[in-house]
Specification:
alpha+beta; five-stranded antiparallel beta sheet; 3 helices; 5 strands
Length: 164
């Protein structure tokens, strides 16, 4: 009888720990406030953007562009000189939540080459969805702060499943 109680207790504690751990992961994976306002709408969590027009990545957590120069990957706070006139707001961005996608750049080049020149994405800056107001660079950020809310529409997007 004691063994049965012990086994049931261990199973229940393991289940409760896993449930708490899963809930914690979901909360940590929302980074709407740190996404750049030129990023596309519809994503609660973004690690990288791939930009087919310039064959470069942007790493959201470190706010770094990643691009190749003379066969080496460069990590920089700004794009290289040749892209100084590139419009981040109108260029297409593919959300990538895979680790180090630049190591598989050929996959992204092939898969998303048809998006070059596509200017159809809505960006965070132009969205009137209140969940984006949390972003301090959003034009309506003052509405989020004055209401003291964290978005009120309850729609948390598609969790980055459009382009994975």
């Amino acid at each position: 009888m004691k063994k049965t109680i012990l086994i049931v207790s261990l199973l229940l504690s393991g289940f409760l720990f896993q449930t708490a751990n899963a809930q914690l992961r979901v909360r940590l994976n929302i980074n709407i406030a740190t996404q750049p306002v030129w990023g596309p709408v519809g994503y609660d969590h973004v690690e990288y953007y791939y930009m087919p027009d310039i064959d470069a990545f942007y790493y959201v957590p470190n706010r770094q562009y990643i691009y190749q120069q003379r066969g080496r990957w460069i990590f920089s706070a700004s794009l290289p000189y040749q892209y100084r006139n590139y419009d981040l707001y109108s260029g297409y961005k593919v959300v990538v939540n895979d680790p180090t996608p630049y190591r598989h750049v050929e996959t992204y080049r092939t898969r998303y080459s048809s998006y070059k020149g596509n200017h159809s994405q809505e960006v965070i800056r132009n969205s009137h969805d209140s969940r984006y107001f949390e972003n301090k660079n959003h034009p309506e950020h003052n509405k989020w702060r004055s209401n003291g809310n964290r978005g009120n529409n309850g729609n948390r997007g598609n969790n980055g499943n459009k382009h994975n």
